[in-house]
Structures are given as C-alpha cells and as structure tokens.
Structure to design on (243 residues):
C-alpha cells in the first residue's frame, strides 16, 4: 500500500511538472529558416541566432533583438518600428524597403548591410558600424548617428535632414545627390568622399569637420565657408586642392 502511494505521488508530480517544461520550450523558439509575413510584434528575441534567416515582410515592431546575430539574414520589407537591435551583428543583412523608424541600432555592426529605400526616421544609430553598407534612396531624417562609421558606404540620394552626425565618419563614402538639410556635422569626417550634387548648404558645425580629399561637381552645395574641389571625372584637368 505504501509503495502504491509513492507511485501515485510520483505520477502527480510529473503531471504538474510537464506543463512547466512545455512553457519554457515555448519561450525559446527557433528563429532560423524562413517565415514570410510573420507577426513578431513585441517579441523578446535578445541574443537569438538569425544567421541566414529569411523573414520577408515580417512585422517586428517593438521587438527586442539586442545582440542578435543576423549576418546574411533577409529582412526585406519588414516593419520594425521602435525595434531594438542595439549591439547586434547585422553584417551583410538585407533590409531593403524596411521601415525602421525610431528603431535602435546603437553600436550595431552592419558592415555590408543593405538599407536601400529603407525608412530610418528618428532612428538611433550612434556608434554603429556601417562600413560599405548601402543606404541608397533611404530616409534617415532626424536620426541620431553620432560617432557612427559610414566609411565607403553608398549613400546616394539619402535624405539626412536634421540628422545628428557629430563625429560620424563618411570617409570614402558615395554621397551623390545626398541631402543633409539642417544636419549637425560637427567634427564629422568626409575624407575622400564623393559629394557629387550633394546639398550640405544648411548644415552646421562643418568648420570642425574634415573634408580633405572630398570632391563634388559644380552642382554640389557645400557647407558655408567650406570649399569642395571638383572630382577628376568632372573636371578637365588637375583638380584644385582642398584649402
């Protein structure tokens, strides 16, 4: 009789424990593979492995994705407003046409990533690394990207009106037809950047910046009191030196 009581008690304990185990597994799902149009609004996904994942048109609004590894992942057309991907590895990830308005990309590593036609309005990108990334036709109005590194990035026709870019690095970047509006570019570096037809005429803090080797066209609108030499491809002769 005593042994039967112990057996029944053991079975009862298993019945109580099993739902708890199932719940823990549910809280740690796999996010690899492909999922078109998934709704992951508000999900807690910090440190999750997204490498080579494919999430076209997914909704990631308000999701927490700090420190995720999403190298080579496809996030084309995602809606990721206010999503936090700070300290994440987004190298070579594709965010073409994505909405990352008010997203946090603080200290994010995104070298070689694609943000073409993406919306990053009011995004926070300070100290992020975007070396060689593409922001062609992207909207970065009012972003906070202080000390961010955009070296060798493609920023053709990018709109950065009102952006906070103090200490940012644009060395060797292609800024053809980029619009800076009233951006703060104090202490920013534009060494060897292409500024063909770019408009920096309303920016402030340019005197503290570095434009050595930067060049543009006759249509380029430089900051006040800053001279930009003509690029060799736009000038029949030896380009003038940057003063």
């Amino acid at each position: 009789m005593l042994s039967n009581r112990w057996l029944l008690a053991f079975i009862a304990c298993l019945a109580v424990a099993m739902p708890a185990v199932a719940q823990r597994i549910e809280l740690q799902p796999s996010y690899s593979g492909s999922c078109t149009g998934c709704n992951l609004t508000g999900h807690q996904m910090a440190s999750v492995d997204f490498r080579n994942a494919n999430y076209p048109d997914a909704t990631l609004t308000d999701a927490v994705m700090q420190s995720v590894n999403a190298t080579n992942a496809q996030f084309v057309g995602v809606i990721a407003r206010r999503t936090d991907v700070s300290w994440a590895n987004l190298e070579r990830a594709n965010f073409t046409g994505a909405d990352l308005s008010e997203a946090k990309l603080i200290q994010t590593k995104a070298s070689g990533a694609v943000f073409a036609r993406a919306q990053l309005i009011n995004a926070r990108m300070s100290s992020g690394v975007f070396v060689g990334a593409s922001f062609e036709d992207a909207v970065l109005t009012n972003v906070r990207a202080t000390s961010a590194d955009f070296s060798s990035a493609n920023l053709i026709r990018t709109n950065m009106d009102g952006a906070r870019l103090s200490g940012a690095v644009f060395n060797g970047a292609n800024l053809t037809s980029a619009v800076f509006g009233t951006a703060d570019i104090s202490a920013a570096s534009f060494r060897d950047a292409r500024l063909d037809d770019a408009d920096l005429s309303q920016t402030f803090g340019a005197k503290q910046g570095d434009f050595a080797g930067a060049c543009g066209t006759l249509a380029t609108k430089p900051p006040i009191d800053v001279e930009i030499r003509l690029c060799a491809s736009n000038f029949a002769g030896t380009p003038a030196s940057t003063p």
